[in-house]
Each structure stands twice: as C-alpha cells, then as structure tokens.
Specification:
The protein is α/β, with parallel strands linked by helices. 37% of the residues lie in helices and 26% in strands. The protein is built from nine helices and ten strands. It has a six-stranded mixed β-sheet, with helices on both faces. β7, α6 and β8 form a beta-alpha-beta unit. α8 packs across α9. The model has no long low-confidence stretch (mean pLDDT 92).
Length: 250
C-alpha cells in the first residue's frame, strides 16, 4: 500500500530583493514527505532552511509553486483558511522557545488548545499530560524564568504538540542548547513524534541529530536533494557546499 503524502512542496520559488540585488532563496524546490516520516532538513546558515519551513508552514508567501498539506493545495487559499490548517493540522517548534514570560508552563501549552476551541478544564488536563510526556509533570506551575534552557525547550515542544498535529515543523529546535541538553531534548522530541506516528520536518545543522531521522534532505542552491539518492549525491559532490554536507555524514 502506497504511503500517504502529508507534505508536498512543488516547484517552490522564493526571492528577496536587497537594493538592486535579487537573492534567490528557493529555486524550484521539490519534496514529498510521507505519513509517519521524520525528515531532516540540512544546510549551512543562510541557505534558506528557515524560509523553507516558514513557507511549508503557511507562515510566509512564495513567488510561485505549490504547498500541499494532507492533500489540500494551500497556494491560493485565504489567510483565514491557512490559520485553520495550522491550528488543526500543524505544530511548530523554533530555536527560540518563544514562551510567554508571564504564563506558567501549563498555561503556555494550554494556549493553542484554547484557541482551537477546547474548554479550560480539558486544556489543562491535556496540557498537563503533554508536559508529563516531556518529563515536566513536576514543573507545571513554573514560569519560563524559573526553568532551565532545556526545560523551556521541552515546554515549547509540548506546546508544538498541543493539538496533536499530523505535521510538525521544527527549526533548529535544540540549536540554543549545550550538547548534553541538545541530545536529551532531541531524543525526547523524536520519541514523542514516533509514538504518535506523526510526520515531522526538522531543520538542523547537526549531522549527528540529522542522522537519527529517517531521511536527510540538503538545501543547496535553493533546491532540495536527498543525500542517499544517487543522482542527488552526484550533484552534491560537484558542489563545494554539497560535498561538505556529504562529508559530514561519513
């Protein structure tokens, strides 16, 4: 049985203009990510990883191309419709945890649930369970300033999974953590995603973390390449940046 495509990026083009210079960030980028698959997005700083994730998450526009989420082409739908898709089907985790400083851990995780229509009691119980699942059941009522960096990022992960999305997008989710906390937090994230059979697209500059995922996709020259695909490897080997990426996985 053929696997269901959860995220399809088709012929994406995205440019920015700086003065008289046009910077091509995405240049005919294509990718299918399947149900239950965890895919690493790799590439050097400035290669466009965040831009790609923002377009995939319907948070940024594209010049041309199609973003298809769970079979729905989101290219020309309204902003209201995009918001509904993000609430119902998508979760986000960023390098910066972006927690609300005046809210407790459980309140931060409750927020997406309340926006999605759950009542306060239900949201509290579910948020408590999410925090328990990331090892913070004993820190429900602590504010971000009372939590370590690793704990704050675990709260951010619980919040990203609050509405049980079918697709999780994560942009360097452990990039601000020391190696020890990075390893532990990332392991927790992968376990949660796999236990839910969730689909995830995760940007990281760390080849060790990328290697723990199902596939590794490199963003080079605005295009996407599977580092285990022979044709893609041939191109990457001919490109200085691409070759450096391949060498990091040897």
């Amino acid at each position: 049985m053929e696997k269901k495509v959860i995220l399809s990026l088709s012929h994406l083009h995205k440019s920015f203009t700086q003065g008289k210079t046009v910077l091509k960030i995405l240049n005919d980028a294509n990718l299918n990510i399947y149900e239950g698959e965890i895919v690493a997005l790799i590439g050097p700083s400035g290669s466009g990883k965040s831009t790609l994730l923002y377009t995939a998450g319907l948070l940024d526009s594209i010049d041309s191309g199609d973003v298809i989420i769970d079979g729905k082409n989101c290219n020309k739908i309204s902003d209201v419709a995009k918001t509904k898709i993000r609430l119902k089907k998508m979760g986000f985790v960023y390098q910066q945890h972006n927690l609300f400083a005046d809210f407790t851990a459980v309140e931060n995780v409750m927020l997406p649930m309340l926006v999605n229509g759950k009542n306060r009691k239900t949201a509290f119980n579910l948020a408590s369970e999410k925090l328990e699942s990331v090892g913070l059941g004993h820190r429900l009522n602590h504010k971000p300033s009372e939590l370590s960096g690793g704990e704050q990022q675990r709260v951010a992960i619980a919040r990203g999974l609050a509405n049980d999305p079918i697709l999780l997008l994560a942009d360097e989710p452990t990039g601000n953590l020391d190696p020890y906390n990075s390893e532990n937090v990332f392991t927790s994230l992968l376990e949660l995603v796999r236990n839910k059979n969730m689909t995830a697209f995760i940007a990281t500059h760390n080849p060790i973390l990328a290697g723990k995922m199902d596939r590794q996709i490199a963003l080079v020259d605005g295009k996407l390449f599977d580092i285990h695909n022979d044709a893609d490897r041939k191109y990457l080997n001919s490109n200085p940046i691409g070759k450096k990426i391949l060498d990091s996985f040897k």
